[in-house]
Amino acid sequence: MKIINAHAHVLKKPINKEITRVTLKDIIKDMDEAGVEKSVLFSGFMLGNEYSLKELVDLIKGDKRFVIASGINLDEDISNQLKETEEYIKKGLVKALKIYLGYQYYYPYDEKLKDIYKLCMKYDLPVIFHTGDTLFSTGKIKYSHPINIDEVAVENPKLKIIIAHLGNPWFLDTAELIYKNKNVYADLSGLFFDINDTEYIEFLKNKIKEVIAYSQEKASKLLFGTDFPLINAKDYIRFIKNLNLDKELEEKIFYKNAENLFKL
Ligand SMILES: [Zn+2]
Predict the structure, then answer these.
(1) For residues 91-121, b (16+ Cβ closer than 10 Å) or e, as one string?
(2) Ion ligand 1, residue ranges at CB < 5 A
(3) How many angstroms is it from 129 CA to the middle of ligand 1?
(4) pTM (predicted TM-score)
(5) Going by fewer Cβ within 10 Å, which terminus of the chain is more open, N or C?
(6) How far is the CA of 128 from the centre of ligand 1 (A)?
(7) What is the share, in percent, of the chain residues with pLDDT greater than 90?
(8) CATH code of the domain containing 142
(9) How far is the CA of 176 from the centre of ligand 1 (A)?
(10) 11 φ, ψ to 5°?
């Protein structure tokens, strides 16, 4: 089956001693090992070892296996970033915008974010929100709770929204959002680090099954993503396959939704 990784980061240098395979070369290897055809790479600004939008464009050099989600820094001048982002949208390189809720202290319905949504709607491209748990304890999770996204979804029915990480650990809140709002999707990325952590993997499987049971046919709005470099694609695909979903749903999760949303 065709596979698209809807959520990945490449970095200039390792995050720590455990996570050392982080570069573009590393993700190409990761994709080849797992049979991933395309990946959406996120530009960033928080760790000090991420690529800016311009740097990421230069790095991928038109390689068709990659498209970009432009990470917008809410603490910097937004209009300048949107201008630059729009140029790369026109060139077909940027296919989504990304907002780091929780890491940056803004609710998704903050006035400041309105122009970001406008640009997304102008080109019918999705906005991706980091939601739920943050990698560092300095994140404030009241901002990244998925429930706050409902306001934006209702007020902007034409805006396509992807809730990253299934709202972890607020899985059922996310289920309600994708069930109720036609324009809300969710990705399954970054939910575990170690596929051999049996107890946690079992917990996670049950949670995803609950989301699917609750959302019913709306669960067809889920997307596959890994959150590379935090986890390898091979293990992540195995995890999703082990959910034993029906073929039609699997196809939507692994590539059809990504193709539609990112216009690939
Ligand atoms: Zn991520």
Answers:
(1) eebbbbbbbbbbbbebbbbbeebeebbebbe
(2) 227
(3) 10
(4) 0.97
(5) N
(6) 10
(7) 94
(8) 3.20.20.140
(9) 22
(10) -130, 160
Nearest to 9 by CA among 47, 37, 36, 35: 47
How many angstroms separate the alpha carbon of residue 96 from the centre of ligand 1?
Answer: 13
Contact between 163 and 131 under an 8 Å Cβ cutoff? The reply is yes
Under the banding of pLDDT at 50, 70 and 90, the label for residue 218 is: confident
Ligand 1 mean position, distance from CA 227 (Å): 5
End-to-end CA distance of the chain: 16
What does pLDDT average to over the chain?
97
Question: How much is the average pLDDT of 238-254?
Answer: 96
Q: How many angstroms from the chain centroid is the CA of residue 222? A: 11
Supply the pLDDT for residue 109. 98
Overall size of the chain counted in residues: 264
Domain count, the chain: 1
Tell me what pLDDT residue 26 has.
97
What's residue 78's pLDDT? 98
Give the range of the structural domain holding residue 151, as residue numbers without chain letter. Answer: 4-261
Residue type, 127: V
Q: What is the mean pLDDT of residues 150-178?
A: 98
Distance (Å, rounded) from C-alpha 170 to C-alpha 132? 7
Separation of 28 CA from ligand 1 center, angstroms? Answer: 17
- Return the sign of the alpha-carbon dihedral for residues 31, 36, 38, 42: negative
